[in-house]
Amino acid sequence: MTGDQQETPWWAAFPAPQFECKEVDADEVKSLIEAAQANPSAPKEFLLVDVRRTDWEGGTVATSINFPAHTLYQTRKVIYDLCKQAGVKRIIFYCGSSNGRGPRCAGWMQDYINEVGGKANVESQILKGGVKGWVKKYNGELMDWYEAPHWEQYK
Known about the structure:
Elements: E1 22-24, H1 26-38, E2 46-50, E3 60-61, E4 65-66, H2 69-86, E5 90-94, H3 101-115, E6 123-127, H4 130-138, E7 143-144, H5 148-151
Parallel strand pairs: 1-6, 2-4, 2-5, 5-6
Antiparallel strand pairs: 3-7
C-alpha cells in the first residue's frame, strides 16, 4: 500500500448505525451478573456481548459471549431470535473501551430490533468504558480467563 492509499475500514462494508444506544455503567452490569450468579435457575434477562476480535486477550467480563464486530452485522437476526426465545431483555455490547466497535455493534443491533418491530422488549445497550474500564474498576473480579499481566499496560 502506498502512502496515498488508505485501507478501507471493515465497517465501511455495512450501513452506518442509525440508533444511538444507552450506555450502562459497570456497576449496573456487575449487579446484573451477581444477581444471575446468586440465582442461577432464574431466567437471565441480559446478554453480554464482547465484540473484540484480535485484541480478545487478557480475559472477558463474566458470562460474555464473543461475536467479533466484523461478523456481527450478518448475525443480528440469529442473536435477536435467540434473545427473544430466551426472554433476554437487554443485549449489552462492549469492546476494548466501548468507543468504536461496541457502540457500532449496539447500534446495528438496535437498528435490527427496530426494523423487525421492536415489540419484543429487547434493547441494545453499551457497557460504558468497555473491558478496559471494567478492569480499571474491578481488576479481575467477575472476569473469565483473566490474565493480570495483560492489563498492566493500561494502568
